[in-house]
Amino acid sequence: MLLTLLASLCFWAAPTDTISDYYTIETIPTPAGLTVETGGLTFLPDGRLAACFHRGEVMLYNPKTKTWKLFAEGLHDPLGILAVSNRELLVMQRPELTRLTDTNGDGVADTYETVADQFGMSGNYHEFAFGPVRDSKGNLYISLNTASNGAGIRDELRGQYDSLGRPGRMYACVPYRGWVMQITPNGKVKPYASGFRSPNGLGIDAQGRLLVTDNQGDWLGTSKLYNVEEGKFYGHPTSLVWRPGFPDIDPLTLSPQTLDSMRTVESIAFPHEIMAHSPTQMVVDNSGGKFGPFAGQTFVGEMDFPHLLRVLPDMVDGQMQGACVPFFAKGGSNGTPLRIGNNRLAFSPDGSLWLGQTDHGWLGDRGLQRIRYTGGTPLDILAMTLTPTGFDLTFTQPVDEATARQLANYQVRSYYYEYHRAYGSPQKDVQTVPVTAVQLSPDRRTVSLTLSQLRPKRIYELHLAKLTAGSKQLMNSVICYTLNRLRTPAVGRAN
User: Are 451 and 286 contacting, i.e. CB atoms less than 8 angstroms apart?
Assistant: First the structure.
């Protein structure tokens, strides 16, 4: 009896479940000779996968028969793909957005049509082009990388050249580098928003908001996610050269303080090395629960770490801010590890999440993997919302009252990243923030934390490692909230 009791106490004191108890990872075989540097993934209405690869191929994969077929080839660095129908794809390659159409139904594209190419090219290697994504009104969005001073430009350019856009570590000497572009249903192309450095990820979330990720670098102290709206400037100055009405000056002659007053800040920051190095595409869990307890949430890829991220938006005073938390998938029940280089994501009709990896000049890996949900409910953070005095944390399961009520189980620090011309930024003004009170909801699924202080324009990093739910451990014990605006008692909440 004593041995049984001791064994029981040890079991409850040291939860042993892992992400492998809920998700499994499968590596998808790819054709011999194909360099699997994935630039885009999308699913056709009939359930086939369409994938494009850096070296110009567009391939179709049938998950039922596990067979591949070449759909198109000869594209230039395609880095995004969107299915229109079983016979039509939109592919974003370096020089243009292209429509590929199989006119006779034999599974091979017969026509390659230009949809949009109203942007400049200097020949710089870093002028990648990403997208497209489509909103509920049928508008398409693409994003255009800035050029890098790690290489020059060609003698022959496409588009107008402006020497005022040439200085800087990253530059935009041709239009519309550093912009997100909108293509309306009637084919009109217009510059939509500016101020981006390397916007490798675009997505439309469950609320219809256009989200864009940008990578740490000059003018980006850490990687970021923006809620992008028309006409706004998001911080990287070189693209201002192509903004209508902007003075005929080099934007880099403006002070950081002036530029800071002009920009719209990120909705969610990804603290460097804690959350991400190079965030990539985002995708909404549209599986209706087939992928576990995260239906409707947005997942974000990451190039350098073997995990994904989830973002948890929180609307405050009409503006989106919120938290990010890792979604770890380090291994599956079959022992297959999640690789790095997760550049592209797509949910399949069966609710599994497909990942396309690349190492094309970056830290990464190559190939395709699929994450399947196998059942059960892991203990994880489902939501994080700001209150006037702290934060509410909502979990997927009721948490144990004993651990949830202990102040020592919540470690909080706050800091910010500097907005400046230099590459990246260390964490600035790092402060420990004591948790002064804890309340637990009657269903034990929401913990309300009162903090000693809340300050805007800071990131709040919470560590919750000791929270448990019976035999379950918390899958991800670190979460970071980007606090741009404080919430007052009179301001409601909406996600």
Answer: no
CATH 2.60.40.1220, applies to 381-483:
yes
CB 88 within 8 A of CB 99: yes
What does the pLDDT look like over 358-407, one tens digit per residue? Answer: 997 777 899 999 999 999 999 999 999 999 999 999 999 999 999 999 99
pLDDT, one tens digit per residue, over 334-349 is 556 899 999 999 999 9
Sole residue written with tokens 């948790």: 435
d(Cα 197, Cα 215) in Å, to the nearest integer? 7
Query: In CATH terms, is domain 25-373 a member of 2.120.10.30?
Result: yes
* 317 token code pair: 């005073």
Sheet holding 129-134, edge to edge: 129-134, 140-144, 179-183, 189-194
Asked if residues 346 and 49 have their Cβ atoms less than 8 Å apart, the reply is yes
Its pTM stands at: 0.94
b vs e for 395-426, b when ≥16 Cβ sit within 10 Å of the residue's Cβ?
A: bbbbbbeeebeeeebbbbebbbbebeeeebbe
Would you list the domain boundaries of the chain? Answer: 25-373, 381-483
